[in-house]
Amino acid sequence: MIFSMIKIIGIVFAGIIxxxxxxxxxxxxxxxxxxxxxxxxxxLLISLIDGxxxxxxxxxxxxxxxxxxxxxxxxxxxxxxxxxxxxxxCRDCGExxxxxxxxxxxxxxxxxxxxxxxxxxxxxxINLISK
Length: 131
Description:
Layout: H1 2-25, H2 27-62, H3 67-92, H4 96-130
Protein backbone atom coordinates (compact mmCIF):
# COMPACT_ATOMS: atom_id res chain seq x y z
CA MET A 1 0.00 0.00 0.00
CA ILE A 2 2.81 2.43 0.87
CA PHE A 3 4.59 1.78 -2.41
CA SER A 4 1.45 2.40 -4.43
CA MET A 5 0.94 5.67 -2.55
CA ILE A 6 4.53 6.71 -3.30
CA LYS A 7 4.04 5.88 -6.99
CA ILE A 8 0.81 7.86 -7.21
CA ILE A 9 2.32 10.84 -5.38
CA GLY A 10 5.25 10.74 -7.81
CA ILE A 11 2.88 10.65 -10.77
CA VAL A 12 0.90 13.56 -9.36
CA PHE A 13 4.03 15.65 -8.74
CA ALA A 14 5.28 14.99 -12.28
CA GLY A 15 1.82 15.84 -13.56
CA ILE A 16 1.80 19.11 -11.61
CA ILE A 17 5.05 20.14 -13.28
CA UNK A 18 3.60 19.23 -16.67
CA UNK A 19 0.37 21.02 -15.77
CA UNK A 20 2.24 24.22 -14.93
CA UNK A 21 3.91 24.20 -18.35
CA UNK A 22 0.73 23.20 -20.16
CA UNK A 23 -1.26 26.05 -18.58
CA UNK A 24 1.05 28.54 -20.26
CA UNK A 25 1.02 26.85 -23.66
CA UNK A 26 -2.49 25.36 -24.00
CA UNK A 27 -4.73 26.33 -21.07
CA UNK A 28 -7.72 24.50 -22.55
CA UNK A 29 -5.92 21.15 -22.17
CA UNK A 30 -4.84 21.83 -18.58
CA UNK A 31 -8.26 20.88 -17.26
CA UNK A 32 -8.12 17.48 -18.98
CA UNK A 33 -4.68 16.79 -17.55
CA UNK A 34 -5.92 17.81 -14.11
CA UNK A 35 -8.75 15.29 -14.36
CA UNK A 36 -6.36 12.61 -15.58
CA UNK A 37 -4.16 13.24 -12.55
CA UNK A 38 -7.09 12.85 -10.19
CA UNK A 39 -8.01 9.36 -11.39
CA UNK A 40 -5.09 7.45 -9.78
CA UNK A 41 -5.46 9.36 -6.52
CA UNK A 42 -9.20 8.71 -6.37
CA UNK A 43 -8.66 5.04 -7.24
CA LEU A 44 -6.23 4.66 -4.35
CA LEU A 45 -8.56 6.51 -2.04
CA ILE A 46 -11.47 4.27 -2.96
CA SER A 47 -9.40 1.18 -2.21
CA LEU A 48 -8.40 2.66 1.17
CA ILE A 49 -11.98 3.58 1.99
CA ASP A 50 -13.08 0.08 1.00
CA GLY A 51 -10.65 -1.38 3.53
CA UNK A 52 -11.86 0.96 6.25
CA UNK A 53 -15.48 0.21 5.40
CA UNK A 54 -14.86 -3.55 5.62
CA UNK A 55 -13.21 -3.08 9.02
CA UNK A 56 -16.18 -1.00 10.18
CA UNK A 57 -18.57 -3.72 9.04
CA UNK A 58 -16.54 -6.13 11.18
CA UNK A 59 -17.18 -3.85 14.14
CA UNK A 60 -20.88 -4.01 13.37
CA UNK A 61 -21.01 -7.52 14.79
CA UNK A 62 -19.48 -6.34 18.05
CA UNK A 63 -21.82 -3.41 18.45
CA UNK A 64 -25.00 -4.61 16.81
CA UNK A 65 -27.13 -1.95 18.52
CA UNK A 66 -25.18 0.81 16.82
CA UNK A 67 -25.34 -0.40 13.22
CA UNK A 68 -27.53 2.51 12.15
CA UNK A 69 -25.00 5.00 13.53
CA UNK A 70 -22.22 3.26 11.64
CA UNK A 71 -24.13 3.44 8.36
CA UNK A 72 -24.86 7.12 8.87
CA UNK A 73 -21.22 7.84 9.69
CA UNK A 74 -20.06 6.14 6.49
CA UNK A 75 -22.62 8.08 4.44
CA UNK A 76 -21.52 11.37 6.01
CA UNK A 77 -17.86 10.60 5.27
CA UNK A 78 -18.71 9.84 1.64
CA UNK A 79 -20.75 13.02 1.26
CA UNK A 80 -17.97 15.12 2.79
CA UNK A 81 -15.30 13.62 0.54
CA UNK A 82 -17.35 13.97 -2.63
CA UNK A 83 -18.46 17.53 -1.95
CA UNK A 84 -14.93 18.66 -1.05
CA UNK A 85 -13.47 17.02 -4.15
CA UNK A 86 -16.17 18.57 -6.35
CA UNK A 87 -15.59 22.00 -4.82
CA UNK A 88 -11.83 21.71 -5.28
CA UNK A 89 -12.24 20.81 -8.94
CA CYS A 90 -14.57 23.79 -9.41
CA ARG A 91 -12.02 26.11 -7.76
CA ASP A 92 -9.25 24.72 -9.97
CA CYS A 93 -11.35 25.67 -12.98
CA GLY A 94 -11.81 29.18 -11.62
CA GLU A 95 -15.45 28.69 -10.66
CA UNK A 96 -15.40 29.73 -7.01
CA UNK A 97 -19.13 30.55 -6.90
CA UNK A 98 -19.97 27.06 -8.13
CA UNK A 99 -17.52 25.59 -5.61
CA UNK A 100 -19.33 27.40 -2.80
CA UNK A 101 -22.64 25.97 -4.00
CA UNK A 102 -21.19 22.45 -4.08
CA UNK A 103 -19.90 22.87 -0.53
CA UNK A 104 -23.28 24.17 0.63
CA UNK A 105 -25.00 21.21 -1.02
CA UNK A 106 -22.62 18.88 0.80
CA UNK A 107 -23.39 20.52 4.14
CA UNK A 108 -27.12 20.28 3.56
CA UNK A 109 -26.81 16.63 2.53
CA UNK A 110 -24.76 15.91 5.67
CA UNK A 111 -27.38 17.47 7.92
CA UNK A 112 -30.15 15.63 6.07
CA UNK A 113 -28.45 12.27 6.53
CA UNK A 114 -27.72 13.07 10.19
CA UNK A 115 -31.33 13.90 11.12
CA UNK A 116 -32.03 10.48 12.72
CA UNK A 117 -29.05 10.89 15.05
CA UNK A 118 -30.05 14.46 15.91
CA UNK A 119 -33.59 13.27 16.63
CA UNK A 120 -32.38 10.49 18.92
CA UNK A 121 -30.06 12.90 20.75
CA UNK A 122 -32.93 15.31 21.33
CA UNK A 123 -35.19 12.49 22.61
CA UNK A 124 -32.41 11.30 24.92
CA UNK A 125 -31.87 14.83 26.24
CA ILE A 126 -35.59 15.33 26.87
CA ASN A 127 -35.82 11.99 28.69
CA LEU A 128 -32.75 12.84 30.75
CA ILE A 129 -34.10 16.26 31.73
CA SER A 130 -37.59 14.96 32.54
CA LYS A 131 -36.30 12.36 35.01
